[in-house]
Specification:
Blueprint: H1 15-26, E1 34-35, E2 38-43, E3 45-50, E4 53-58, E5 64-67, E6 81-88, E7 92-97, E8 105-111, E9 114-123, E10 141-143, E11 151-160, H2 164-178
Antiparallel strand pairs: 1-11, 2-5, 3-4, 4-11, 5-10, 6-9, 6-11, 7-8, 7-10
Length: about 180
Amino acid sequence: PAFPFKRSPVGAFPIRSLILLLLAAARAPAAAPIPLALGTEKNQVEVKEVDDGWEIKVTGGDPWIWTSTFPAGTALAETSVLALVYQATDSVGWTFFARAEAGYGIRPGWSGKTNTWAPFALPLAFYDTGDNRALDCSRLRMGFGGPVGKVVKLRNLYLRAPNAQDMKLVEALMKKRAA
């Protein structure tokens, strides 16, 4: 089933989230990356394990799959970036849900189709606003958008500490949100 999106007020970015991002980015040494896998709960996708990742074929209008549950003791305040590399036969309309029961969505936007491996990073702390407690989750539901027949390949799926590039992205997102 589709979940309604609840948006935070424009310009709302809790100081708590910004402080967590800054502290995690400034930490030395950075927390070790936490490898993730894809879970078994899925909707309107066919999933095959290939090489060192997965091939996901969209078979319907609401394609999604959950990640595996994060390992016990995962400190999302320190490893608050979901990172992966992907290839796609069409643009990917990324959508993430931290908690299905709450119906809150994280919509970072679209990534272009690519025949080469391209990086993607989602700074969870930026989306930890209002009732959308992105840093309080134990797994993520990943959505890809249509059309039917699109193939998305994923590998190197993990949680990691924010880096300088992530901080630049957050600054740009904050400016966009404030505009």
